[in-house]
Amino acid sequence: MDADITATRIHQKQVLALFNCVLSFATVDDFGWWAVPIVAIVAFTLYGIEGIGVQLEDPFGYDKNDINMDGIIEDTRQEVMVLLDEWKAAGSGNGIHGGMFD
Question: Does residue 4 register a pLDDT over 90?
Answer without folding.
Answer: no
